[in-house]
Amino acid sequence: MTEQQARTLLDVRDLRVHFPTADGLVRSVDGLSFSLAPGRTLGIVGESGSGKSVTSQAILGLHRGTRAQVSGSISFDGVDLLGLPTRELRRLRGNEIAMIFQDPLSALHPYYTVGRQIAEAYRVHHSVGKRQALARAEEMLDLVGIPNAGRRLHEYPHQFSGGMRQRAMIAMALVNDPRLLIADEPTTALDVTVQAQILELMKKLQQEFGSAIIVITHDLGVVADIADDVLVMYAGHAVEQGAVADVFYRPQMPYTWGLLASMPRVENPRGQRLATIAGSPPSLIAPPAGCRFHPRCAYRGLVEGDACVTSAPQLATTEPGHLVRCHLEAAERARVLGNMKDGVR
Amino acid sequence: MFQYILKRLLSIVGMLVLISISVFALFFAVPADPARLTCGKNCTPAIIEANRHALGYDKPIVTQYLDFMKGLVSERDFPDDPVIAKNSPQSITHCPAPCLGYSVTQGQLVSKMIKDAFPITASIAVGAFVLWIVGGVGIGVLSALKRGTLLERGLVSASLVAYSLPTFFIGLLLLNIVSIKYGLAPAAGYTPFLDDPVAWAQGMILPWITLAMVFAALYVRLTRANMLETLSEDYIRTARAKGVPEWAVIARHAMRAALTPIVTIAGLDLGGVLAGAAITETVFNLNGIGKTGVYAIQQLDLPVIVAVVLLSAFVIVLFNFVVDLLYAFLDPRVTLR
Fold first, then answer.
1. Architecture of the A3-110+161-227 domain
2. What is the pTM of this model?
3. Who is most buried in A70, A315, B91, B235, counting CB within 10 A?
4. What ipTM describes this predicted complex?
5. What residues contact residue B50 under an 8 Å CB cut-off, 6+ apart?
6. Chain A residues closer than 8 Å to B256 by CB
7. What percentage of chain A reaches a pLDDT higher than 70?
């Protein structure tokens, strides 16, 4: 085993998730590759419908039993998850790979106590009694900073505040010390101060458990805060990926420029409108030919000829570990980036 | 909680009083004369008036109503006439409290009639209830899990057919085919459960199936819709993501949520059937509450009508109450106030 392989926990190669519908085949994820090492955090960003959540659910095999067509390979610690029988995949779910969902109120069962739901996650993978599992649940609630854990254990999700519910979700996800934690928009439903607390908590727990984390978000602030690497998705493709510092300080793709420019900043003058990316995400049934971003791209005039419309750009390395899918010449990108007022960040 | 129960019980009593007043008012608003029904072609106004007096319909309505209410707490005598009581005491029927009245057309105390009829209706209702819940919910869950298959389409269409058939038609069809043509089951009849449980079930099986078919169809569609909705909930995905086995995802997570609203409807339906399944009882000639009520209306037999309506109302209101209590217990988000 080479050193690179030894350090890879999750390796996704050419993942495709397609949904047949009455209107045609929806290509939600269309050839996505990335890998993740233990203890590292990957941020996946993109607009709604870019394929972020579909990717995360494909890792856990949650598309099984639906009409989704999943191809490519997802290898977790050397095991191919896509080929794994559901029985064996189930042993990994919630145990080695756990997930935190966006809206903890709808993701928790309304009729069972929080303690019971956490205990269930533990009992599914450990042969322990109810009492032991509940004790473990209490320990977890305490760990994620819920005061009076012993009492709150017996309360229902609707009796928790939004931040508490997300803490409970995290407790449930971490109850089996997973090696990979997938957080699907973990802070979207929360207000800003609670967001910061939850991210802080995730960072702290990662240090404690050494888990790898995938954070799915449309909030670049979250990525900047928590992730080591970032993957920018657009219409089912990765359009830019690399280390957070590289992508944030030297973004190379017009879509990433747009995302970064559309972030609100404290130093912007009051009353100034936020920058937007014109247009809306393309249809995933018949995505635009050539570069999928070209109909919304303000820079395609800088590419000679009509390459953006006719030929699909491939992911190419611009610096070690930094991949970009764009027809723009490197020199042209550097010039645009240099021209951007006060840089992109 | 205690306060809530007390409040509800008081409102039930109030509602029953209002219902009894309405029944009295409606009865006397009907353009038919119960006294006129007591004698045939050769009636003279004098005989009619005498009969009206014997029936007690000559008193003011308010007096009649107050007499009825008084009877609920104290005993009454029928007919309530000191002259008759003195001359022929053997023709007086004594009605101990709580007295629901005396049916002249049946020559019986109303409480006795209700006491005889209710076990029949209860037998029909409880058996049919078990059948339709097990069948309806079972088929509903199955068709939700087999969504998009031929089996699902067959089950849903069959339930639609059953739902659109009228009760009396299903009853007559079953009676004709199962009982008369092939002799697979005896024509319906009532044997008290304690006397002979087997005969009880045999006599009830056709009415059970008849009622159950009509109700089960509704439950199939309801359960299926609730299950499909629940299966697409986020917390079902959470359960799968936790590694919960699929059977437990369905039984523990999906059904727990999908079937809770069914409890409400099931409770109300059971109350409704316990209040008398008039058509089924009539088709199978069972003297339950429903058939007793229908007959009393045909005969303009006020005390029986009042008793049947009050009993039906009481059962329905009571089941409403029980369902509300049960729901607070089943759904932790509901608090009773």
1. 3-Layer(aba) Sandwich (3.40)
2. 0.82
3. B235
4. 0.86
5. none
6. 109, 111-112
7. 97
